[in-house]
Amino acid sequence: MKIRAHAESHVVELDDGSHLPGDLAATLGWKPETDLHLEPSGDRVSSHVLVNAADQSRVRVIAAGENWSDREVKKSLMGG
Q1: Fewest CB atoms less than 10 Å from the CB: which of 36, 47, 62, 74?
Q2: In the chain, what is the greatest distance between 2 CA atoms, to the nearest angstrom?
Q3: What does the DSSP 8-state code read for residue 10?
Q4: Where is this region: Disordered (predicted)?
């Protein structure tokens, strides 16, 4: 998987046409030539993580059309 577009916004577009919210701290350094792969996350907030093969940085992702659960995200951020 490769990045098609990562404008100065919070959305990353992949070459398969999917979009993900960009965690700017992690994804800002990702370039179009960056090799990315998808792994199951095993957590309750997201179904998968997108991983940069070079440095192993990762961001949580969910399927298009799904919504993030506010309650689960807050619990995760608070360490619960």
Answers
A1: 74
A2: 36
A3: S
A4: 1-20
Question: What's the residue count for the chain?
Answer: 80
| Letter string b/e over residues 51-60, b meaning 16 or more CB atoms within 10 A of that residue's CB | bbeeeebbbb
Domain ranges of the chain: 3-77
Residue 34 near residue 26, CB atoms below 8 Å: no
Predicted local distance difference test score (pLDDT) of residue 51:
92
Task: Give pLDDT, residue 48.
Answer: 84
Does residue 70 sit in helix, strand or coil? Answer: helix
Q: What is the pLDDT of residues 8-48, one digit of tens each?
A: 566 777 788 777 666 667 777 788 888 999 899 887 778 88
